Input
Amino acid sequence: MNVVAERVLWHFDEPRTDTALVRAAVWLEQLCVLCYETAAEALPGEARALARRFAAHERAHAAGMETVLQGLTVGVRNRPEPVDVVWHLPGLGHGTRATTLAQLVELEESMLSGYQEMARRIGDLELLRTVGTVTAGGAQHLVALRDALGRPLVPRAFERVG
Amino acid sequence: MSPPAGRAAGLSRRALLQAGALAGAGVLLGGCASETEAPSRRAEVGVLADLLAHERRVLGTLDPLAASLRGSDARRVRQLVAHDERHAAALLAALRARGAGAAAGAVASSIDAAPLARALLAKEAALAAYAAAPARLGDGALRVGVLQIGAAEAEHAGVLRLLLGHDPAPDAFAGLA
Output
């Protein structure tokens, strides 16, 4: 497991309640926004436009998951900061175009795996209604990122980390 | 909210999950005790049969499409076909594990050959079913397997959009919201 996956999946492994799981998902989606914004500042041309557009998508994912959290009558406790980008994706924005895009692939793959863990453990299945659409959006980000990297677009029949 | 610096892998549950029933057709066999009272196993059979029907409809569009294409486009579509055949096999195995092999056999099979746009429509219909399915499945391991296939289906739809010359990820929610 790569370092990005290890650090992202920690957030999904730690919670012991549905509320904590959803809260972790919101925080991580907000982290994804910051990661794409950081990458956009460093990427050139079409890749920069792609990262900016996906930052907006991640903002929509965060809003969707925050709505799920509000349905549990709780709010967001804290939000990620730039230092959290440094911890989760070390060196993001300081490498080559390929390195940066590859880190974003690792981030998206880790989020998919994290949501799978969330789906496995969650008690209230109604909370999963938004997860299916969020993960579908994330999976399509992967196609675009892999295409930009010249990698196989769908390397696995069952999408999971490792 | 970040894990402490230098934290060891410490992902034993995840490691077990990844080392466990997640390989090949076994991905959907589950076997964990249900974590909720409902949905019932009967309801799960209905969901799985519906997903299998979608897979077969998609295969019905992709098979002739692959034959009509050349070069890298043909290779990409053939890879989707190979994935979907594995998805269908996993769903069939999960149905049989639930004593519903006959129901699987009764699922409608393929439709006529179709152009790329029609294949995308079928893929998007399958994707919508996969996105909705986890909330209707009581078995946690089964939910994971369905999400794994659903993510691959979303990727397939993205590939088909690329082949059509479109954006593979046109909106935040894969067109499902």
